[in-house]
Amino acid sequence: MKKKVTNWGNYPVIHVEEKQFSFQNELSEINHIKGNIIARGLGRCYGDASLGDNIISTLKFDKVLSFSKETGEIECESGVSLADILDFSVPSGWFLPVTPGTKFVTVGGAVASDVHGKNHHVEGSFSNHVIHIKILLSNGEIVICGPNSNKELFEATCGGMGLTGLIISVKFKLKQIETAYISQKQIKANNLEEIINLFQEHKEATYSMAWIDCLKKGRNFGRSILMVGEHAKKSEIKKKDPLILPSKMKLSIPFNFPGFILNTFSIKSFNFLYYHKNTKRTIENIIPYEPFFYPLDSILNWNRMYGKNGFVQYQFVLPLENSHKGLIDILTRISKKGMGSFLAVLKLFGKQESLISFPMEGFTLALDFPIKKGLFEFLNELDKVVLNYGGRIYLTKDARMNSEVFWNSYPNINQFLSIVNKYNPEFKYSSLQSKRLISPKLS
Amino acid sequence: MSNILILGATSDIAVATARKFAAEKHDIQLAGRNIENLLPLKTDLNVRFGVNTDVFKFDASDFKSHKPFYSGLPKKPDVVICVFGYMVEEEIAGDNWEEAEKMINVNFTGAASILNIIAKDFEEKGNGVIVGISSVAGERGRQSKLFYGSAKAGFSTFLDGLRNRTASKGVHVLSVKPGFVYTKMTSELDLPGILTAKPEQVGKAIYNGVQKRKNTIYVKWMWKWIMLIIKSIPEPLFKKMNL
């Protein structure tokens, strides 16, 4: 039976067969499925990266296979979520080495997207902490790959959007913490230049990101709040067990908001309030890790705010030398169009050698755009600007980029595809996204 | 802290139930036909919840093995949860006695056999809880669930009778009739959301049912009333309906 499936952006929506599996001995059936297949976990990629002709849900394949409290090494099946891991790892003093802005992603998805977090500039992306991956290839073989074995398969699997095969399990190393708290500092920046300098000044901070107002023009163009943080030390916390957090209630958005609620006025008001809630230029305090890393996870289904037409999250990165100029250019276009979003997140990436992963040294900006008339034309225009500055778009957020842009912005695409071709020769594993981005160039 | 034995531990309901009891710090014994499939769950429960877990081979339709299985357990359980079941489409079973027989053997005979053995032990000890996952399909016979429904009807009646036998001996019996559940078995069906429980909800309902020593639970409350209505339809009318 076909089911309605859509990812976090609620765009696109497809009707498709979804197969589940719970045990390794069911894997042989997967390659016998007629047509193309693609793995899907919690569906937190925004667009069509985990949508395809046949979807293999990894959510029932969710067992933790090993965990050492001594070394922090953990191995889990691909459907285990980061939230599940935090539940038991934090109380024993271990944290995720890298975490995206939501904990509701699976380990398989974290590898396939090679997710990054607020610590990218010091600790790299998720794949930097992976010990090995078990992967089901299209010929039915199960192969172990890692930085030291089957290296090319490993590199093409990290950030490879599921195109090398089905990730079965992942072994990686957690990071030791003394408490479940973050000692954070928030600093206001009046404009873009200030925030860029602030990032450079705080390069030593383990975690950093900024919220940026994309709609402000004039003197305060690019006003932002920088947030930096460190895992709090035991001595800073006056709790009996500093690794345990008090539990709290979750809000949920029960239905799609009607389209008129989000408009330039309401977003400007929100941005005004958000910026001015910090009355002092600098705030320093200690907060639980959850609101620091996952501010939006406490509002379940926040994506419904954008209404039933859905939204696109546009995340690009620009090389460091072009970041300032490029950000001015792009933010000017956005504020002129008045199409900006609630949340625009700015972050400085560190250096990364990557085959197909998104990060590169420079600034990355992520913004939400509710889908409406003229948006895709505008984003195509932004793509060209990003491309001109030598930047690229994050595939995990993408639902609409055209093949040309993709091909010109990921410099190792040919090498990536030759590896994919070796392990997945007939594109048995392919998604709507890979069909959109890769197939047109091959035929 | 008690020791929970789960019979048929590979199903989605079994996994969710095991996790709920483990989260409440109970040790878990997992029993099923395929040990290989149980091992990941064993480490999973151990890592997530820090409880002791063990796995045992158990085949519901191999009745002769039931006594040695139970006497071979190194530690006897305080609570046993009978989750295993078997279902094929009735059209297939109608033409293929082996399938029909298997539905009867697993859902009724096998369940009655093992639970009777365990109940005897519990009665002797003077305590213990027996949980049977039966089905709303057993509440009234109908064509679309002919063999499955009648086997589950037998199981439900068995649980009622067992409760009657053991009540005075300190042993409690809980019958669970989950209604529709989102599981692998039903993943291809378009189930009505309002009547369909998640496996986690079933696990939680079982846990609460054991704590409160309930006799019969339906996971979604509406099922109780739906089945009441279905049971009250006069037979002359019911037999002509296409259910």
Protein topology:
The complex is a heterodimer of chains A (443) and B (243).
Chain A: E1 2-6, E2 13-20, H1 27-30, E3 37-40, E4 54-57, E5 64-67, E6 73-77, H2 82-89, E7 94-95, H3 107-112, H4 120-123, E8 130-136, E9 142-145, H5 151-157, E10 166-173, E11 175-176, E12 181-189, H6 192-201, E13 207-212, E14 224-231, E15 251-252, H7 264-276, E16 282-288, H8 289-293, E17 299-300, E18 311-319, H9 320-337, E19 344-349, E20 362-370, H10 375-388, E21 392-393, H11 403-409, H12 413-423, H13 432-437, H14 439-442
Parallel strand pairs in A: 2-4, 3-4, 15-17
Antiparallel strand pairs in A: 1-2, 5-6, 6-10, 7-11, 8-9, 8-10, 12-14, 12-16, 13-14, 13-19, 18-20, 18-21, 19-20
Chain B: E1 3-7, H1 12-23, E2 27-32, H2 35-49, E3 53-57, H3 66-71, E4 79-82, H4 90-95, H5 97-125, E5 128-133, H6 146-166, E6 171-177, E7 180-181, E8 196-197, H7 199-211, E9 216-218, H8 222-232, H9 235-238
Parallel strand pairs in B: 1-2, 1-4, 2-3, 4-5, 5-6, 6-9, 7-8
Helix pairs in contact in B: 1-2, 1-7, 5-6
Written description of the protein model:
The complex is a heterodimer of chains A (443) and B (243). Chain A is an alpha+beta fold. Chain A folds into three domains: 81 residues, no CATH class; 113 residues, Uridine Diphospho-n-acetylenolpyruvylglucosamine Reductase, domain 3 (2-Layer Sandwich); 225 residues, Vanillyl-alcohol Oxidase, Chain A, domain 3 (3-Layer(aba) Sandwich). Chain A is built from 14 helices and 21 strands. In chain A, strand 8 and strand 9 form a beta hairpin. The model of chain A has no long low-confidence stretch (mean pLDDT 92). In chain B, helix 2 links the parallel strand 2 and strand 3. Chain B is globular, with a radius of gyration of 18 Å. Chain B is 48% helix and 16% strand. Chain B is of the alpha/beta class. In chain B, the strands form two sheets. Chain B has a seven-stranded parallel β-sheet with strand order 3-2-1-4-5-6-9, sandwiched between helices. In chain B, strands 7-8 form a two-stranded parallel ribbon. At the A-B interface, strand 2, strand 5 and helix 2 of A face helix 2 of B.
